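>> received
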Amino acid sequence: MELKFIPASLQMNQSSPKDQLNVFLKVFLQWVDSQRVVEGAIMVGSHARGEARQDSDIDLVLLCTEYESYLQDLGWTNEFGKPVSVRLEDYGKLTSVRAFCEEGPEVEFGFTQLDWLAQPLDAGTVGVLRDGFQIVYDRSGKYSALDLQL
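>> returned
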């Protein structure tokens, strides 16, 4: 599957955060739909709240049946542009891949197991979700129907 990179015309300083997000999500949704181990994706933070600034990153939580391969081989980040820097960040139940690309916004891909949304939610999950969330991908339809007790 061939994905389109985020075009130079949509660099951080040349378009609104909402425009950048919309272009990124089109590419991301194509990619994630081809990733069979990803069951759901949740956007969190300022973009989910509709309060993103020009310098805001895009924060995603990917709910996976398995995700170690994404941490061991970071080549998949090339699907979203040419990475200038990619780093791993460990948050316990969630491990992030933070990608800084030549074009487009900084993106934090947070990989976690399916039980990240299991009730009762742990304090870390509650904190992330209270800061704003939006389900952007739901392979089976089960996450959109969740009644999250925050």
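>> The CA atoms of residues 29 and 137 lie 7 Å apart.
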